């Protein structure tokens, strides 16, 4: 998809916060030097600044800023000092950011109402430094202007200037790579937290995978490789669903755990998933060429022979083999190969099903 088409499919959200820190510049006459002189404690002053207001009374604004940024990052990618979100999500963003804004200004009103009393409480809490604090106290109006939150949603269009166009083209092209890298990072965090060294995972961990999957689904048009990631994440979710349908219990284990573990371990390795995406692209191009050369052959017609597994698929099989070797007897029963399974190791381990080998869609890990 061209950069112009991508720009048509995204909107940009900018969230601008002004948050007062409760600090003002430390003046020369705030510091007593010479005989008997002393520096104010760090609670009051540090690095050329002095705190004339209790910082804990202002933490709510930073929390709301973090909440807004996390919300936008849950389905958007940083872009042009804001977040690129899928076109069509604007109404959701307006609704949810308006709620955060209401909470922000509610906290601001509470702060302004009790401002003078809070200043006096801070002075009483720091005896011996009353003058230093009082000399820096800001007026109520000044504080009011230092706490603001606004957001905007806008569309980006191209420019006729060649230099500007090239810069924008590079930024747009980088969006897909940024999301690809983010998925690899999140998969790595998920693997380290939930899968590494374990034989089971709590089923509620599925929610994290769903969040990653939904973000990729919304922005899949940014880069062809994202379609491969989406297919793999769908396979992970399917493994969770199969486990939930088979038996009760809060943990996912056995064959379904092995499949989740194998896919996530590959997704978490940038080199392996990059290589797999490239192999998928080559396979897809070959399929397209074959359809053009023999249009009478139905794309759903079974293949004459099983496609040779890629290196990444072999890595998955080896991960699965390791799991089986270390599994308990009860876990081994869950992954015993079917009698009619084909001879290849991938088929024995149920990694590839015979009737799926000929599917013309972009290849995934064939579970």
Give a short overview.
This protein is an alpha+beta fold. It has 2 domains: 145 residues, no CATH class; 175 residues, no CATH class. The radius of gyration is 29 Å and the shape is globular.
Q: Encode the helix/strand succession as letters.
A: HEEEEHEEHHHHEHEHHEHHHHH
Strand order of the largest sheet: 5-6-1-7
Percent in helix? 40-55%
Number of helices: 14
Strand tally is: 9
Largest sheet: 4 strands, antiparallel
Structural class: alpha+beta
N-end to C-end Cα span = 29 Å
Globally, the shape reads globular
Portion of residues in beta strands equals 5-15%
Which regions have little confidence, pLDDT < 50, spanning 5+ residues? Answer: 297-308, 331-367
Our Rg estimate from Cα atoms comes to 29 Å
Calculate the mean pLDDT score and round it: 78
How many structurally independent domains?
A: 2
What can you tell me about this protein's structure?
The protein is of the alpha+beta class and 367 residues long. It has two domains: 3-31 and 39-154, no CATH class; 166-287 and 304-356, no CATH class. The protein is built from 14 helices and nine strands. The chain has helices at 3-8, 59-73, 90-113, 115-125, 130-134, 140-145, 162-195, 206-218, 225-246, 254-267, 270-293, 311-326, 329-334, 345-348; strands at residues 10-18, 23-25, 45-46, 49-51, 77-79, 82-86, 148-154, 201-202, 251-252. The strands form three sheets. Strands 5-6-1-7 form a four-stranded antiparallel sheet, with helices on both faces. A three-stranded antiparallel sheet has the order 2-4-3, with no helix packed on it. Strand 5 (77-79) and strand 6 (82-86) form a beta hairpin. Helix 7 runs antiparallel to helix 10 (254-267), helix 8 packs antiparallel against helix 9 and helix 9 runs antiparallel to helix 10 (254-267). It starts with a helix and ends in a 19-residue tail after the last helix. The model is unreliable at 297-308 and 331-367 (pLDDT under 50).
């Amino acid at each position: 998809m061209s950069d112009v088409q991508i720009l048509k499919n995204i909107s940009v959200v900018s969230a601008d916060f002004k948050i007062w820190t409760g600090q003002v510049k430390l003046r020369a006459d705030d510091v007593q030097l010479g005989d008997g002189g002393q520096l104010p404690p760090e609670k009051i002053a540090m690095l050329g600044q002095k705190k004339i207001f209790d910082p804990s009374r202002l933490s709510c604004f930073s929390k709301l800023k973090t909440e807004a940024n996390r919300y936008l990052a849950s389905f958007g990618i940083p872009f042009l000092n804001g977040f690129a979100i899928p076109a069509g999500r604007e109404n959701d963003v307006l609704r949810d950011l308006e709620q955060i804004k209401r909470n922000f200004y509610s906290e601001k009103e509470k702060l302004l109402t009790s401002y003078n009393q809070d200043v006096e409480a801070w002075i009483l809490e720091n005896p011996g430094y009353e003058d230093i604090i009082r000399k820096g106290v800001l007026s109520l109006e000044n504080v009011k202007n230092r706490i603001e939150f606004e957001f905007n949603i806008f569309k980006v269009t191209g420019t006729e200037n060649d230099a500007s166009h090239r810069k924008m083209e590079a930024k747009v092209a980088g969006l897909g790579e940024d999301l690809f890298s983010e998925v690899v990072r999140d998969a790595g965090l998920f693997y380290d937290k939930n899968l590494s060294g374990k034989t089971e995972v709590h089923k509620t961990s599925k929610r994290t995978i769903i969040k990653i999957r939904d973000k990729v689904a919304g922005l899949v048009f940014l880069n062809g490789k994202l379609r491969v990631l989406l297919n793999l994440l769908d396979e992970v979710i399917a493994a969770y669903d199969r486990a939930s349908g088979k038996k009760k219990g809060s943990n996912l284990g056995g064959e379904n755990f092995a499949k989740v573990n194998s896919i996530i371990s590959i997704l978490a390795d940038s080199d392996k998933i990059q290589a797999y995406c490239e192999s998928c692209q080559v396979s897809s191009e070959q399929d397209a060429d074959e359809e053009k050369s023999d249009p009478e052959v139905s794309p759903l017609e079974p293949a004459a022979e099983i496609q040779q597994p890629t290196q990444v698929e072999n890595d998955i099989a080896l991960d699965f083999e390791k799991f089986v070797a270390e599994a308990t007897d009860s876990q081994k029963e869950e992954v015993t190969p079917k009698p009619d399974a084909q001879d290849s190791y991938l088929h024995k381990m149920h990694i590839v099903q015979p009737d799926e080998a000929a599917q013309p869609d972009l290849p995934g890990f064939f579970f």
